[in-house]
Amino acid sequence: MVSPAIALAFIPLLLTLIIRYRHFFLLFYRAVLVRIWKDISTGLSREERVYEYVLTHATPGDPESILVAFDTWCSKVEYISNIGPKKGKILDRLVVERSPLTVLELGTHCGYSTVLMARSLPLGGRIYSVEMDKTNAAISEKIIRLAGLDDDTVELIVSPSDEVIPRLRSDYGLERLDLVFMDHWKKSYLTDLQMLEGSGLLGKGSIILADNVLFPGAPKFLRYIRKCGLYEWKIHRATLEYSQGIRDGMAELMYLGIK
Known about the structure:
This protein is of the alpha/beta class.
């Protein structure tokens, strides 16, 4: 049996750990424990709950109000992972500055980043948004249409990314991707990037923006872009969306072409 003196000696260490990792404990509470409790008590999924909130708090046909409702829910009601307003400014800036006509989004989830990009697209621009989860895709479809975006602006593709990428040219008639936004499974970042390279859809100057490369992290993806010599790249350092104290970052790549 541990003596009281030994137990007391561990209290300072325990307090130090709690203080140091308090942001991670809070994230676990908000993202996991609250989600489980709400799933059971409401009978709805987290994605269904955020949709109900957006539906009752946003103005139909107004993309900005959709994003504001999302941000309010994610910061004050429940946590859900999307790019968020701070990192969203980086993505929005790229869309405004680059005026991409063809955008590929890997990981629609609830449609937050889809709406964010679509509101700033140039005339004739189109987003091909890929989501493998059918339930999430159905919710994102509702949110995208609630924002007033039609099929000519956003095409939602419900399928795993590794099945869609090889068919982008043959099934969707794409010749070039101007912008690629990655926010799906982090373990798929590298394989999907290499498939895009092999597809011939990346042209000189094509931009790839990958979220959450530092947390949860995509180390193999980062090692590859550092060594392959195919990209001019940089990391936009930030904090995790709707959190404080958890460091994260986005990788911005510009394709230089095959050497």
